[in-house]
Automatic annotation (TrEMBL):
It comes from the Bacteria. It comes from Amedibacillus dolichus. Keywords: Isomerase, RNA-binding. Residues 1-60 form the RNA-binding S4 domain. GO terms for molecular function: RNA binding; rRNA pseudouridine synthase activity. NCBIfam families: pseudouridine synthase. One of its GO terms (cellular component) is cytosol. Its EC number is 5.4.99.-. This is Pseudouridine synthase. Pfam families: PseudoU_synth_2, S4.
């Protein structure tokens, strides 16, 4: 992320004000005063203003278009995590809200707001999560009925009824309210089918921004944050 954008997000002023700050040599990146507002920051960079380290201790909310091939964790010895792909310094206590499998992609909320994360993930809150799903085999009307029936058993418990909307012979939108391990894949397996592509497109009121490509991210708007907290 550009230095001026980063400073503006850290509430140090408008883009115009932070540019002035940079030009007046009050901003240091690591050991060097930086006078270039378009300086690209890496995750490990430390930014100082008037010799004070900038620590984001406010709550931050980002949406990431999780690409396939990375895992939804903060650290891993083997795999690249979703936190490794950020191109800007984030508060150390940020984490992904909920999991997407390594081969799944789509909307992932990253925040350091534990209270909101709890609210979104708690099974009692019944927050809708919608997935675009492509399957190996054709989906029958009976399959859609089964997905919506609430009779599928996973981990010896019935899952809540889902909403299933067929898009083509072998693709559908599936909305579920829980987040059991591999839930979508296992629900389709219960229909005798196999998921070959899975993308989360929404979580509660938050929709994956269509202008993001896999691996890209942006901060949530105030309105999106408010919507999630309701
Ligand atoms: N359900 C799955 O099976 N996988 C995901 O990544 C998300 C939901």
């Amino acid at each position: 992320m550009r230095l001026d954008k980063y400073l503006a997000h850290a509430q140090l002023g408008t883009r115009k004000e932070v540019k002035k700050l940079i030009r007046s040599k009050r901003v240091r990146v690591n050991d060097e005063i930086c006078t270039k507002e378009d300086r690209q920051l890496q995750k490990e960079d430390c930014v100082y203003v008037d010799d004070e380290l900038l620590v984001y201790d406010e709550l931050v909310y980002l949406m990431l278009y999780k690409p396939q091939g990375v895992i939804s964790a903060t650290e891993d010895r083997v795999h690249t995590t979703v936190m490794d792909i950020f191109d800007a310094p984030l508060p150390k206590n940020c984490f992904p809200v909920g999991r997407l499998d390594i081969d799944s992609e789509g909307l992932l909320l990253i925040t350091n707001d534990g209270q909101l994360a709890h609210q979104l993930l708690s099974p009692k809150k019944h927050v809708d999560k919608t997935y675009y799903v492509e399957c190996e085999k054709t989906l029958s009307s009976e399959d859609l009925q089964l997905l919506e029936s609430g009779t599928i058993q996973l981990d010896k418990e019935h899952v809540l009824p889902a909403q299933a909307k067929r898009i083509s012979a072998n693709s559908l939108y599936l909305t579920i309210q829980e987040g059991k391990f591999h839930q979508v894949k296992r629900m389709l397996q219960a229909c005798g089918n196999k998921v070959c592509y899975l993308k989360r497109i929404s979580m509660g009121s938050l929709q994956l921004d269509k202008s993001l490509a896999p691996g890209e991210w942006r901060y949530l708007s105030e309105e999106e944050i408010r919507g999630l907290k309701q």
